[in-house]
Amino acid sequence: MAAKTGDDPDSLMALATVFCLRNLRKTMCYQGYRNKLCLRSDIFLPSEICDKLVNTYMELVHTDSNFEPQESFFQLFSDPRSTRLTSVQLREDFVRDRDLEAIRKQDLIKLHLTYCNNVSARSLKTLGCFKETLVSLCLFGCSNIFYRKGGAPLACGEDNEEDDLVNPVSRQALEKDFNFQGFSRLRLLNLGGLPDEIDVETLLKTLNTLTSLDLSGVQLARAAFLTQWKERMASLVLYNVDMSEELVSTVLELGKLRHLDVSRESRRTSKFKMTRKILTAIVQRLVNLVSLDISGHVMLDNCTVPQLEDAMGRASTEPCKSSIYPFQELKRPLQFLGLYDTTLCNVTHIPAYKVTGSKNEDQVLNAIEAYTEFRPELAHRAINQLFDIARIQHCSQLLRALQLVIAALKCHKYDKSIQVTGSAALFYLTNTDYRNDQSVRLRRQVIQVVLNGMEQYQEVTVQRNCCLTLCNFSIPEELEFQYSRVNQLLLKILEPARQEESIQRIAVHLCNALVCQVDNHHKEAVGKMGFVKTMLNLIQKKLQSRMCDQVMEFSWSALWNITDETPDNCQMFLNCRGMSLFLECLEEFPDKQELHRNMLGLLGNVAEVRALRPQLLTPQFITVFSKLLDSEADGIEVSYNACGVLSHIMFDGPDVWAMEEPLRDTVMNKMWDAIRSWDVTSRRNINYRSFEPILRLLPQGIAPVSQHWATWALFNLISVYPSKYCPLLIKEGGIALLEKVLELDSSHEDTKDMARKVMEQCENFKEEPMEINQAQEVVNGQRA
């Protein structure tokens, strides 16, 4: 069978790395003084492994809520004699000054810090420790690294663990003494988001060897200093930098440029007009360009060929056929051309192999790919456009689309706009239309980022999108690998007293589906999380508002499922005033058939637990159950379940019946009458995963009516659903127990007659060939 998209397995290296990080004390480390994590003395790790450990550690910290960060993790890499680091990528506020100081003795070649707002000027001192080896440095979005904390700046090597906590970064204490003097090997530098107070020209004047510079969002008072790299600069990024005649003239002098990015976030924020003359100059003067981004600029109409000429022929990447005049002078097509939020992306003939824009799916996916890491504001808009494509049209690059959205959600876990649009896009990208093309591994990645979003945001839109996306999966099968986590998140959603109705309804539906068709240890674990109490609280709130809606019915259904063959959960139901709520619902909503069926099904589960039955044996409850024997709600279901509850109570014998009214014989006579009134060919709204609770009522003479109910139940089920229930009855030893019914003198003749028919039906079924899938169907039953 061909592999589905996204089904490539993780490498052994990746699997081993994650295992070691989750089990540091069992693999590489021991518990040292004051519980400090220490590397074992017999371990030496090369850079390939150390780099992987640190970078994977950061990914787990940000994307896996079950992963526990280690306070002294970076100290494991403090000694280059046992560990070697060369390439480190750290992001978000989790990173602190002391983490960088811990690795200051390493010969780092690449250090990327992104959105690390908790590092201060103290880390600038640490950077000096890497100046002889550092080739690539990124400080993108590290808005506080040029500011000192409350006290005096520490020199590289001083260690004060409390300083990170007690001295918040002060925006007034600017670090003026730092420069890149001595960083002789530095080639690639990203200073995106550099504070306006920093004089970038002074900061960079000693860096003579730069080949790549990113000054996104940095306002340049003078642009001429850029010419010091005109013989070396291969890549220049000036995203969201205000363009001017001087800046354009300076850029045109950088003749070695291969990548130029002068894009903006939006046309609305730009006063500068990108003219045909400027674009022509860029093409003519920067002859080595293979990548150009002019997104977000206002384009004058004279840049493109007439509409009739543009519409001629099939789309072409040949420069001579370009619909954009200036690009007709290109010697070869560009590898990348950024035209997002410009009118140029809509033309037919664009001389580039990869184009960002909003004209079609390919351009939108290219935009998500190009802008996710450093420009979430653009990625958010592009994902929103992908959402429209998946919702209204059809996504033809499903694997790529899913992988890009997953990557964006992982990268920007703390960006609400990305989480809203990303979760909405995932809802449409995982629905039935696309499901058959998706691998198990890919769908699991979707589930994980959805749960990350639910954990991080209690905001209504994110929660709704995430819950709706989970509804696209087979429940509980596809969610079982995150079973405990998803249940905890859903119960948390249902805690607030004033949760939005739509989210409440979806969350209860998911809770119900999650406890249906799972084994008992899963149900017991969820019960201990507070599942039973949460459902009863919802029911109580609905009662107070006198409203019987889907939330009310789903809540009782969920309780029915979670109490099936789980005595502890049945006990919780009784302890949390479950029976009082049952009576109140019965009185408040006398005509709600579905509600009555669910409530009686649940009480059937409670009645199956012998130790709990005395709590049901009260005049009030027995009278209610007796009356419900006459119910015709939902076919025979309410009457059938009421009779089931009473059958288990009767099975305990006359000695436990201490009440004067109603009389035990009177109730049993009503039970006989009810059973005789049922149509044995009735189709059922119930699913049995095991017949054990029914079978235990067969070989006994203390309550013939209970035996009769059990035999009728088996006869009905194997008659209407033979392929499902005959194998189950045979497998659980039901035939031998039915034979005992025939042997007992106390068994009623009607009961014996039905028992013979059940045995005959099963015998006939055994003689008929049975398809494998029919047999397998039996294994997965559960009360729904």
Automatic annotation (TrEMBL):
Family of this protein: Belongs to the zyg-11 family.
What Gene3D superfamilies does its record include?
Leucine-rich Repeat Variant, Ribonuclease Inhibitor
* Xref: InterPro entries: ARM-like, ARM-type_fold, Armadillo, LRR_dom_sf, LRR_Zer-1, ZER1-like_C, Zyg-11_UBL_adapter
Q: Which ranges carry the Protein zer-1 homolog-like C-terminal domain?
A: 409-764
Instruction: Report any Pfam family annotated for this entry.
Output: LRR_Zer-1
> What keywords appear on the UniProt entry?
Leucine-rich repeat, Repeat, Ubl conjugation pathway
Protein name (Swiss-Prot/TrEMBL): Protein zer-1 homolog
Q: Which residues cross the membrane?
A: none
Upper lineage is: Eukaryota, Metazoa, Chordata, Craniata, Vertebrata
Q: Which residues form the Zer-1-like leucine-rich repeats region domain?
A: 202-342
Q: Which organism is it from?
A: Merluccius polli (Benguela hake)
Q: Gene Ontology terms, cellular component aspect?
A: Cul2-RING ubiquitin ligase complex
